[in-house]
Amino acid sequence: MNHDAQLNLPAVPESLAARIAAGGAVAWSQPVTMRTYEAGAPDEYPLFVNRRVYQGSSGRIYPVPFVDHVEEVPVDRQWRAIHLENRWVRLMVLPELGGRIHVGYDKSADYDFFYRNSVIKPALVGLGGPWISGGVEFNWPQHHRPATYLPVETQIEEHEDGSVTVWCSDHDPFARMRGTHGVRLHPDRAVVEVVVRLHNRTSEAQTFLWWANVAARVHDDYQAFFPTDVDYVADHARRAITAYPKADRPYYGYDYPAHHETGGDRLDFYKNVKVPTSYMVCDTQDDFFGGYDHAAQAGFVHVADRHIAPGKKMWTWGDAAFGHAWDRQLTDSDGPYIELMAGVYTDNQPDFTWLEPGETKTFTQSWFPIQKIGVAHQANAEAAVNLEVTGHHLQAGVAVSRPRPSAVVRITVRGKAICEQQVNLAPDAPFTWSTLLTDDAAPTDARIIVEHDGTTVIDWAPRPRTESAEPWQAVPPPQPAEIESVDELYLTGLHLTQYRHPTRSPIPYWEEGLRRDPGDARCNLALGTERFHRGLYSEAEAYLRRALARLTRYNAQPRDGETSYLLGLTLLRLGNTDAAVDALAKAAWNRAWVAPAAVERARIAARTGHFGEALRLSIEALSCGPDDNRARALQIVALRRLGRPTEADDVIATALAASPLDHTVCALRDGICALSGLDGRTVIDVALDLSRAGDDDGALEALELAARIAPTPAGEFRPLAHYHRAAILDRLGRTQEAVAARLIAQDTPDTLCFPAGLDDQHVLESALSADPTNRQVRCLLAMLYFDAQRGDEALDLWESAIADGETGTVALRNAAIATYSVKADPAGALALYERALAVRPDARLVYEHDQLCARAGVSVVGRVANLDARRDLVLRRDDATVTYCNLLIYVQRLDDAATILDTRRFAPFEGGEGQVLAVWERLNLALSRTSEQEGDLPGAIKAVHDAIAVPEHLGETRHPLADTTEIYTRLATLLDQSGRHDEATAARTQVRGHAIVTPVLDDGSVDYFATSLPDLLLFPPLD
Length: 1023
Known about the structure:
Keywords: Repeat, TPR repeat. Pfam families: DUF5107 (PF17128), TPR_16 (PF13432). This is DUF5107 domain-containing protein. It comes from Xylanimonas allomyrinae. The protein has 6 domains: 14-371, Beta-galactosidase, Chain A, domain 5, CATH 2.70.98; 383-460, Immunoglobulin-like, CATH 2.60.40; 482-574, Alpha Horseshoe (Serine Threonine Protein Phosphatase 5, Tetratricopeptide repeat), CATH 1.25.40; 590-660, Tetratricopeptide repeat domain (Serine Threonine Protein Phosphatase 5, Tetratricopeptide repeat, Alpha Horseshoe); 673-769; 908-1023, Alpha Horseshoe (Serine Threonine Protein Phosphatase 5, Tetratricopeptide repeat), CATH 1.25.40. It contains 31 helices and 36 strands. It has an 8-stranded antiparallel sheet, with no helix packed on it. It has a 7-stranded antiparallel sheet with strand order 13-19-27-26-23-21-22, with no helix packed on it. It has a 5-stranded antiparallel sheet with strand order 1-6-7-8-9, with helices on one face. Helix 10 (611-624) runs antiparallel to helix 11 (629-641). The longest helix has 19 residues, at 915-933. It is globular. The two termini are 58 Å apart. The model is unreliable at 1-5, 997-1005 and 1011-1016 (pLDDT under 50).
C-alpha cells in the first residue's frame, strides 16, 4: 500500500529525475512535514540508576538527560529528511532521529518493505525515554541506541560508480566512541546497503553491540523466515530456548504446543505469537533472513556475512490486546509491526564484544525487496530463491536484486533437469514456476540454479534434515565464594563487565580471586582498570604494579602489553609523564598494543612541542592501526608544525576518504566553522583531540564555540567548555585568562550540565584546586563522582556546597539521594528533599520525596497528606499518579481515586507495564466490596466487570498471561450470590494463575537474567 496520502514524500527534483530514468541513483535533502507528538523537555535532575535493567544489560542513563513525558496532542512539524532513490527503491533518512531509515519503499510493487509510520509518535521505550517505531533503527553501542532521539551529522557522497551514500555519524553519549553508518543506493540495483564504521576514539577498551532494527508491517498473512537449517531459537541472554519454526515447549509462558492442531505452534507467523516475545537464531550456516507478506506477495531479504553478522532476531509486542495497546502508543493508524533485527558482532541480547583503543570495525549489511516468490529458502546479495517439494508438487521462485536479462534458470530433480528456461529477470520481474511430478520426491531431491553471463548467480539444493543437538542455555554464574578457581573468578568478572551486567558487580569476583592469590595478574589488572575508569588513579597504580610484578617475576618481557599500557595511562593522569612514557614504550613491545601506545606517546610529544617525534610515533601507530584517525590528526598537526603543509593536506584527504564525517579531521581541514551545528559535547571532544595533537590554539577556538552552543536534549555543556578552556590556559601559563574563564563558567547556567569521564574530572578537580570556594564546581564534580560510584566524596562536596549557601534544587536533591545511599540516613535525606521542595516545588521532586517516605516508614496517612498538598504536581506524572491512587484506595478515598483514573490518560514505560492496570483493578475491586457491604449486588458485579474491561485511556491492557484469579473468583462468587450460577461457572473458567516470567526473585533480589525493571531504583533497600 502506498502511504503518500498520510506521509507526503516530496517529488524528485527535476534535475535528478532524468538520472533515475537512466538507471542512476540520486540523493537529496528536503524536509518533510509529519504529524508529531513532541517529546517532553529533558529532566533537569540527573538519574543515578546504575542498577536499572534495560534490554538485559545496564540501563544506566547518566550523563544523558532523561525524558519521561510525551505530549498528547500532535502538531505538524517539519523534519529534516534526506531522500535516496533509484529505479527500484525509494528511501528516506531522518537525521534528527539517530539517522534512521524511516521509509523503505519498493516502487515496482507499490509496497513499503520497511514499516512506514505516518506519524512521529514516541513512546517511553528508549534508554533515555522517547523512541519511535518503524523503518530501520541502527542500535549501538547498546540496544536501543542511546542516541535514538538525538541528531546525527550527515553528508551526501556521490561515488564514481554512480552510487550515492548518505553518511550519518555521532559520538555515542556514554563512552564517546564514534559510530558512522552510510545508507547507500547503487545504480539500477534494488539493494539498500548500509556501510558501517565503528571507531573507538578513546584511550580505553570499550564494549559494544550492533543491531539493525528493521520494522515490518504485519497481519495474519505475514511470515518471518529464517534459514532452513535453523532448528532452535533463544530469548534474551539464552534464558530459554525452543524449537523453530514449530515451538516444542512453552515459551515466554505461552503454551504453543497446545495449539499444534491449528498451526498455532508456528513462531514464524505473527498471528500465532500472543505475548511480547523475542527469539534469536541459535545457529545457522546461512547469511540471510527476512519477512514476507503473503497478502501483498512482497517482502524483503537481509544479507550479511554470518561470520561477523550472526544475529537474526524477531521481536513482537504480540498479536493480542496487550500488544495492540502498544501499537496504539506508537502510531495513529499504521497498525502492528514486528522487528526483524540483524546483529553484527553479536547473536543475542545482551551480547557485547570488545573494541580496543583506536580500533575501527567496518562492515556492511544489505536488504532488498522481493516479490511473488514466497519466503526465501536461500539468498545472497544477488538473488533469493524459493524451492518447495511436497509429494508430487514442486514450486519454485527466483527474485533478483538487479536486472538479469537472458538469465538461465535450471531446476533438477535427482540430477535430471525438469525445467531450463531463459528469462529476463529483474527486481520487478521475478521467476515463478510449478509442476506436478510423476513420482514422489523429497525436498532434498530438488535443486535450482540461476546463471547469468556465464556465472552462477545462486545455486540451492535443500539440505538433508538432521536432528540437531539442543543448544546450550545460560545459567547464572555462582556467587564468588562458590567458584572453585581463580581463573573462573576472573572470567566471571570479565563477563559481567563485558555484558554491562546491571545488577551484579564484577568486583567481588576479582576481590575473591585476590583473597586467594593476592598476586594474580589478571584480577589485579581488572581491578586496576576498574579503578582507573572511576578516576581513582593511585589505587589503580597499586593494582597494576602488583599485576606487573607477577607478570615479570620470571620474565621481564610479558607477552601481553595491556598492563603496561594501562599503567602508562594511569601515570599520565597522575602527572608522572616520564614514567608514563616508559610504561607505554614497554607496552609497545607487544604488537597488539603498538598502535594505542604509540598514539599516547605521540600525544605527549606533541603537547611538549616535539613534533618530529610526534610525527614518527603517529606513523608507527598507523603502521599497525591504519584506520585510527587519532593518529592521522597527530600526523596532520605535526606536519604543519614542521612546515610540510602539502603532506598534511594529503593526510587529510586520505583520512576523510575513509571517514568523511570525522569531526576532528574536518576541523583541521576547514577550521572551526566545520563544527557548526554540532552539540557542545562533541565540540569539546574535538577540542580535546586538537589539544592532545598539539594544536592548543585550535582547541581554545573550538572551546569558545562550545561555550556558545545552547543546551539541547543531549545536555548543557557551556560551563564545561569554559572549565576545559581554563585547564588548557593554565597549562600554557596564561593564568589570568584561566581565572577569567572559570569566573565566566560560574556565571553560566548549568541546568542539564552532567559532567562525565576522566577529562571532565581533571578540569573540575583543577578548577576546585584553583578556587575551593566555587560551589558550582563542587556540585558538578559531585555528580561525576556519584556516577563513578564514589559516593563518599560526592556527598562531601554536596554537603560543603550546601553549607556554603548552595540552595539549588538539583544540588539539594542530589545530596538527599547520596545521604540515603551513602549514610543510610533516610531522615536526613527527607530533610534535604523538603528543603528542595520549599525552594521550588517540582513534580519529580514530589514523586521522589514520596518514594523516600515509603522507604523511611512514613505512614500512609502522612504520605497522602503530602501528596494532597501538591496534587496538581502529582497529577503531572504517571508514576506519581499511580502511587497516589494506590494510597487513596488504601485510605478508602475511592471516589477520589476513581475521579482520577476515569479521566486521566496514561502512557506506560516499557518494562513498567501493569502498574496502571493494577491500581485500576484494585480500585474497582474495592468499589465492588463497598457495594456488596451496602447490599448492592448489581453494583458490586458491575464494578468487577469494570475492572475486567480496561479503558483505552489507561494506555495498556491486560497481558494474555496475567494472573486473573482474584478478579474472576470474585466475579463468580458475586454471581453465585445473585443466583446467576451459569455465569459464575463461566467466570471460573477465566481464572488463570500467574504465568509471566518476572524479573524479580521470590526473595526480592534482582534476577540475574532480568530484562526490565519497572522501578528506577533511586532508593534501593538499605543493606
